[in-house]
Amino acid sequence: MLKLKGELTGFWSVAVNGNWQSFFVLTDVMLSLSTILIITEERFSMRMYNPPHPGELLREDVLPSLGFKIAALAPVLYISREMLSRVCNARSAISPDLAVRLERAGIGKARHWLAMQSTYDLWQAEHREQPDIKPIANVA
């Protein structure tokens, strides 16, 4: 973990994978997580290599930082232990509802969780076999 300075004084940073970085704010009550995508000038040409499933970030970084186990966090979010386990083990996606619940619990922003899920899903789709689609000719 790296203690940040300047405008981000009071924040801590942890590199996660590729272009993803987690920023933490330590408080007396709870650890607040804000995960953002670091965007570079080459953002349109630079692709993340095999981005992590956001559930892995939740399991490997967030839960230990909060001192929670899956079984303890699930009721806080009003979801089943099984559902949270599937997400944390990359077998289910983070849904918009779960993203909102995480945000309301003070665990990051819903849009960041959904952006990570979307990035993961798109990379997976781009690397699966797809049918040979031909471009649609301009119709004028």
Automatic annotation (TrEMBL):
The chain crosses the membrane at residues 20-39. GO terms for molecular function: DNA binding. It comes from the Bacteria. Keywords: DNA-binding, Membrane, Transmembrane, Transmembrane helix. NCBIfam families: antidote_HigA. This is Addiction module antidote protein HigA family. It comes from Candidatus Regiella insecticola.
